[in-house]
Amino acid sequence: MIVLGLSGLPNSQRKLHEDNPDIDPLDARICQGLDSAAAIIVDGTLVAAASEERFDGDKGTGALPRQAIAWCLAEAGVSADDVDVVAHGFDYDRHERAFVLNRTHFKEVLSSQTVRDALTDAGWPQLAAALTPVEHHRAHALSAVVPSGFDRGLAVVSDGMGEVDSVTIFRFDGRELEKLHSQPIAASLGILYSIGTRFLGFQFNNDEYKVMGLAPYGDPERYREVFRKLTRFDHDKGSVVIDWPTGALSDAEHGYPYARTMLEEQTFTPSLPDGSIQRDEADFAASMQECLTDLLVDLVGYWLEKTGETNLALAGGTFLNCKSNQSIADLPGVQRLFVQPASGDDGTSLGAAYAVAEDLKPVATPFDPYLGARYSADEVRAVLEARPDLQWREVGMTDEYLAAAADDIAADRIIAVFHDRMEFGPRALGNRSILARPDGDRIKDRINSAVKFREAFRPFAPAVHVDDRDRLFVTRGFEPDHYMLCTAHVRPEAKPVLSGIVHEDDSARIQTVTPGLNPTFASLLAQVKERTGTGCVVNTSFNVKGQPLIMDPATAVDTFARIALDRLYIEGFVVEGTAR
Question: How many helices (H) and strands (E) does the chain have?
Fold first, then answer.
């Protein structure tokens, strides 16, 4: 059986912009169906998954993932005619009556027919005929449940919104999901955090991670009462309540102006972001982050206690918040925890495929997120031979090659690495990464200003060899540590050698690297340890501001040539820089 999974709503963002030609760029992502992706399962085995943004360069696009589909089919060695089922991670059709006042929007944007039409227009009528919609939160849940490897447990989904829900609690036994609880869109934790993000002058549904990075610089006490008046946890029903005033969630396409006005009346008038840390904005971010974390801890803790379950699987964009995930991981009732690395809507392509595949084989754990495109040495060489402006040499994927990369890191150089298959999800996990020494000279400033061109307050994450993790960090060692989905406290004695990755609250968003999951990266870290005494590096994504994670050699080489990296290590080739 061959199952193709899809996410995204092809007409959603285009229709938003057609209806609002003067839309503020900060509001350009206030719509459903972004982060389109494709995944393919062949005879019960997950073969490939990738987001469309990696192919077309349009970060977070919700367009039909036609290039991702074509690549998945090619990677699996099958044709569109071979596909048995196309699973789509939305099922608005069963909720059509909820849109009785806006039938045009339903027909043009939300209906499954829009996906069928897009597939047909792309030349795949056979895929259109095989389309099966899957409820959005069910797709999210299964994207975490299946790869967790847990026999049973509790699955929690939280995002901006599914079809009509914003939070859903499932108990699972194998792949069978029992829905225990759901919350309406008016009680959406994702929308709350995104409105706060927009209030601070960042892009809705895109820049929430910036707010998470800003929060440790602030004092949560200052605006705590604002969020306590707005939100609460109902311990009788096990649900989050958000007391938005009437009309606060209207006029979404203009950035929820009534909700933002309410926040401004109770707090301050925010300044336009300039990359600096302002006290009001930092305190607001800290209060909102505390609110989100407290509500999630109450929600998850309640349902763990009520069900008696100890295994926890999380998915949905809310669970890309690694600070909240740390607090959930610390709950005493949690014995095992898995968070889907692609917790955003891209992951529903995977979950939707899991929902309809009838012959799933047992999934090896830990889950392997390296599901994207890979390139041969010949393909890389062809790209480099077309660049006479660069110096390069071919070493091969050898110990000598990794030793050279480790030498550069130990010498406080900033390098990029491009190896093997691209990561699925928003985090760079060592195959499309920029790496540096964690105690390098002004390392955060150097990377932020000359390489990434991003806000100075944003932290960098460490990748640490599993053998060094517990010596450097305090963590329960759950699987989210493999995927940069959970923060850990830096041990006090380790701070001097980790100064470039210690955030303001003494935490770090770690990636634990194991030889089993990524042998090349683990070997590189072992070589770094031989030279520096610490098997840990700064690891940030190989891209620049506004650019998706780099997928292919041509983009990698072009990006390297225009930013201040010292060297690029790409599939056994060492690219030195501008030829003289």
Answer: 20, 23
Tell me: do 87 and 48 sit in the same domain. Answer: yes
* Domain at 230, CATH number: 3.30.420.40
* pTM score of the predicted model: 0.96
Sort residue 443 into left (φ over 0), alpha (ψ -120 to 50) or beta: alpha
How do residues 137-180 score in pLDDT, each as one tens digit?
Answer: 999 999 999 999 999 999 999 999 999 999 999 999 999 999 99
Q: Which residue has the tokens 């790409």?
A: 570
Tell me the pLDDT tens digit for each residue of 293-307: 999 999 999 999 999
Tokens of 200: 């601070």
Tell me, what CATH number does 550's domain have? Answer: 3.90.870.20
CA distance 258 to 198: 12
Q: Which two tokens stand for residue 407?
A: 């030498």
SS3 track for 549-575? CCCCHHHHHHHHHHCCCCEEEECCEEE
Q: In the chain, what are the helix, strand and coil shares in percent, each to the nearest 5?
A: 40, 20, 40
What is the C-alpha separation between 512 and 457, in angstroms, rounded? 24
Distance CA 223, CA 267 (A): 7
Range of the domain at 385: 377-578
Residues 362 and 52: beta-carbon distance below 8 Å: no
SS3 state at 376: coil
What's the total number of domains in the chain?
3
